[in-house]
Design goal:
Helix 1 packs across helix 6, helix 3 runs parallel beside helix 4 and helix 5 packs antiparallel against helix 6. The chain has a 5-stranded mixed β-sheet. The radius of gyration is 16 Å and the shape is globular. By secondary structure, it is an alpha/beta fold. It contains 6 helices and 7 strands; from the N terminus they run ββαβαββαβαβαα. Helix 4 links the parallel strand 6 and strand 7. It has one domain. Helix content is 34%, strand content 14%. The structure holds iron/sulfur cluster. Iron/sulfur cluster binds next to helix 2.
Length: 178
């Protein structure tokens, strides 16, 4: 279970639902090879909004490092051994989605077989993105590529209902992380 992380920049704290964020985008070393995919726009939003840092592959019991996985004919297999993780992945994702507080919005890592939105090889979505969006189809959702500059990041924050203070804080966070 991922802990709820409260924002640092929010002087007057608004009580809102949390963002659900792919953990590697926050700079956490959770990728299969022990790396991360730290992203300025995602981290800026995480300084403003409370959030969960979620790595669905860790949640399903895979460690770091771990064998890389990918979709083959709608089955989630280890690339080398072809061990099949499909059932475990979906049951773990559903149980996580059922446990977490409903999202204010969702930020997913692109191209991931677990978190990807629309560009996952041989499949429309990663298993966690698919499970989360089936449960919360109206939740605002982006991948990190949609947060590549401050204007786009501010626009997503507005969609999430950010206050004027939060928008000011977001610009400060962006500069702080540059
Ligand atoms: S893309 Fe998703 S599953 Fe892969 S390391 Fe990042 S958070 Fe974990």
């Amino acid at each position: 279970m991922q802990n709820l992380i409260v924002p640092l920049f929010n002087g007057i704290r608004r009580v809102t639902k949390p963002l659900w964020i792919s953990s590697c985008l926050l700079g956490n070393h959770v990728r299969y090879d022990g790396g991360h995919k730290s992203h300025q726009g995602v981290k800026s939003l995480a300084l403003i909004f409370s959030h969960y840092a979620i790595c669905p592959e860790l949640e399903m019991g895979l460690g770091v490092p771990r064998p890389s996985i990918a979709w083959y004919n709608n089955r989630l297999l280890e690339n080398d051994s072809k061990l099949d993780h499909t059932s475990k992945a979906y049951s773990s994702a559903q149980s996580l989605v059922n446990t977490l507080e409903a999202p204010l919005g969702l930020i997913f890592k692109s191209k991931s077989p677990s978190c990807g939105l629309s560009d996952v090889a041989a499949k429309e979505r990663g298993f966690f993105a698919e499970t989360a969006l089936t449960t919360y189809p109206d939740s605002p959702v982006v991948d990190e590529n949609a947060l590549s500059d401050i204007e786009a990041t501010l626009a997503f924050a507005l969609k999430l209902g950010a206050s004027h203070k939060q928008l000011d804080d977001l610009q400060k966070a962006w500069s702080f992380l540059a």
